[in-house]
Amino acid sequence: MIARALLAGALALAAALPAAAERPLSALELFVQKDKGYCIACHQLPAGVGPATRADVGPALEGARMRALGRPAIRELLVDPTKANPATLMPPFGRHRILEPAEIDKLVEFLDALP
Amino acid sequence: MRFRSLALGVAALAFASLALAAHEATRTAIVARLQQQLPSWSGSEYVQGSAAFDDALRASIEENANAAAPVLEAGHKLFTAKFKDGRTLASCFPNGGRRVAQAYPQYDPRLKRVVTLEMAVNQCRKAHGEALYELGEAETMGAVTAYLRSLSNGQKMAVRVPAAAEPRFEEGRRLYFTRMGQRNFACASCHLQAVGKRYVDTPLSPAIGQATHWPEIREGKALTLQARIRECLELMGAAPFAAGSDELNHLEYFLGYLSNGLPLKANVYRPPAR
């Protein structure tokens, strides 16, 4: 009985693991995770949107400024900011495959929708 | 014939002077750049590094003023422990190790290599038939260098770059300014371009002064400068150079020379990494 329960548990866990691994990350997770964008290391988000930090290597991200830039320019910046400014410190998230195209799209939406 | 020798001699001397000037010109340019960025700073701020930008970090350093004590005690034991042949690490260094660390890294013309203080410790152990310490091991090499460098506290950094070592210094400079890894950062991106800005929550220290306060004491362990550079390289998404590699030795050489004239202050406390 115990063995059957353990087996059932193990099978359930095995079935759940790939699903968890494949779950697409949210835009905020892409923004804060060290192995993803880790944008939070350099940029502050508006209050209440994400973790509060004092990071200021890059400018604080505000919705009005994002919308003034527009989605195509935000996307370009995320893919390869050195095109617009060769001296920038911002990583080329697309060119260096730090983020996949779909992940960049998700971040563009997130940034464009900031308050 | 004599005239030609003299002319060759003068030319060689002029060339040597030019070569000597290269590393000093690099340092002068970096000093000038940082003075422009940090006009109110004097030597003491440079020695404090990132703490000079952060009241809370300075308070935390003061609160943990004795954090290095257990490490220094362990380092003292290792430094004075007798080898199988009856000698000690202390016997390998002039003045028993007092007032020597400020001159490291140094160029060894016999080996034609830059020798760090950690390498000098291992050279001593090897010469006396003892097993080498792992360069990145906090409990042995970290503790010994913590103690050894503490014997030079207050001494002004005095790293020499003879003409023969100029290419090593130049490689250190080149590596410091080269963008590396997936994140495309150079050391200079953070420690010259963005000095004083906060990466995550920590203010970025300037290149000048970075070599003065090693090892750092973090979570009760001594972290060498090369171990810290390796952490940075990982953050940059680059495969870190091996501890004791020529690349890291030359980077340390470059940073050591940049800090010349600043007082050495070993074993500064730093809070756990986030």
Please tell me the overall pLDDT of chain B.
93
Stretches of chain A where pLDDT is under 50 for at least 5 consecutive residues are 1-19
Low-pLDDT stretches of chain B are none
Of all chain pairs, the largest interface belongs to: A-B, 16 and 15 residues
Number of domains of chain A: 1
What is the share of helical residues of chain A? 40-55%
Distance N to C terminus of chain A: 56 Å
Category from helices, strands and their pairing of chain A:
mainly alpha
Number of H- or I-type helical stretches of chain B:
10
- How much of the polypeptide of chain A forms β-strand, as a percent range? under 5%
Q: What name does the CATH topology of chain A carry? A: Cytochrome Bc1 Complex, Chain D, domain 2
- The total domain count of chain B is 2
Share in helix of chain B: 40-55%
Distance between the ends of chain B: 68 Å
CATH homologous superfamily (4th level) name of the largest domain in chain B: Cytochrome c-like domain
Oligomer designation: heterodimer
Succession of helices and strands of chain A: HHHHH
User: How many strand segments of chain A?
Assistant: 0
Q: Report the C-alpha radius of gyration of chain B, rounded.
A: 19 Å
